[in-house]
Write a structure and sequence with these properties.
- By secondary structure, the protein is mainly alpha-helical.
- It folds into 2 domains: 108 residues, no CATH class; 146 residues, Intergrase catalytic core (hpI Integrase, Chain A), CATH 1.10.443.10.
- It is 45% helix and 6% strand.
- The protein contains 11 helices and 5 strands; from the N terminus they run ββαααααααβββαααα.
- A hairpin with a 4-residue loop joins β3 and β4.
Length: 310
């Protein structure tokens, strides 16, 4: 396998995302994944696999556990093994990033093992512990990730951020996250038919893990989105996505994740805030729901499923 693996993106006949690395077995897995996962998930997995096979530089059938452990060391220590574009002296990736990349690699080999292309998954489930004989299977996780509390915004910070937003569209998107607990991909994936104005609810057709939800959202969101639809959204953008680009050559096309991050980053700088990401806005909503008396089970239903353990 060549030392560099190239990630290419395109659209398939149905308009979905097609990601390729030029490695037949990996490309077949990405094609399989595209049929059951969200575009963002497919691209994230493709990038993780690009990093792995660039660092390991072996064909999928020749990868062994020793290669996976060496990859982990390279990722954590930094330098040329951090990313294919990283220079010597660069710092290592975070434990969460490494765990996600191992999950992507393990998913690939689970697919290949099920098809009979390989006999074992080279990603170890964990490391043996001293009590392994007494408690089989109770090994040490490959990657220890500290349990940290999510950062949330105070009410005053939310007000500062909202005041720094320049359009009704931007205020509606932030309100969807901080008042409805929507994820970034769910905000960008909203279609006009998903807005239930009479019920003050939003239908999430493609949530994380493919789950659908009907979410009640504050009237402030519907006020902002109504003003956006009346005054700002192009009359005939050619898409039923709610949030579209308002200026420039891409005017009328669906807003991208990078576009939303750029909008939020600009508002954050104007408001003088050190933190205010889409993820933090969502967690601010879920924290406030819990404080308001919503049951823990109901709040957890809005969160991500348990991650694979490494």
């Amino acid at each position: 396998m060549p030392a560099a693996v190239r990630l290419t993106r395109s659209r398939d006949a149905a308009g979905g995302v097609a990601a390729r690395l030029g490695v037949p077995l990996v490309d077949e897995y990405l094609e399989f994944l595209a049929g059951r996962g969200r575009p963002d998930t497919v691209l994230a997995v493709a990038y993780d696999l690009k990093v792995f096979f660039t660092v390991v530089a072996k064909s999928p059938r020749r990868v062994r556990p020793v290669d996976v452990l060496a990859f982990m060391t390279a990722q954590l220590m930094g330098g040329e093994g951090r990313l294919q574009a990283g220079g010597a002296g660069a710092g290592g990736v975070s434990a969460r990033t490494l765990r996600r990349r191992l999950s992507s690699v393990s998913g690939l080999y689970g697919f290949l093992q099920a098809r009979g292309d390989v006999t074992v998954n080279p990603v170890p489930r964990g490391l043996p512990a001293r009590r392994e004989r007494q408690r089989p299977g109770q090994g040490v996780p490959l990657v220890r990730v500290p349990r940290t509390l999510p950062q949330i915004l105070a009410p005053g910070e939310i007000n500062l951020l909202t005041a720094a937003l320049r359009t009704h569209r931007d205020r509606a998107m932030v309100a969807a996250m901080v008042l409805g607990g929507l994820r970034r991909c769910e905000v960008l994936g909203l279609r006009l038919g998903d807005l239930r104005f009479a019920e003050r609810r939003v239908f999430i057709a493609e949530g994380k893990g493919g789950h659908q939800r009907l979410i009640p959202v504050s009237a402030r969101f519907f006020t902002a989105v109504s003003a956006y639809l009346d005054d700002e959204r192009p009359a005939d953008p050619g898409t039923d996505r709610v949030f579209v680009v308002l200026k420039g050559p891409r005017r009328g096309r669906p807003l991208s994740a990078d576009g939303l991050d750029e909008i939020l980053g600009g508002a954050r700088r104007r408001a003088g805030l050190a933190h205010a990401t889409c993820h933090q806005l969502r967690h601010t909503c879920l924290t406030q729901l819990r404080k308001a008396g919503m049951s823990l089970e109901a709040v957890q239903a809005q969160g991500p499923p348990n991650a694979q353990r490494f």
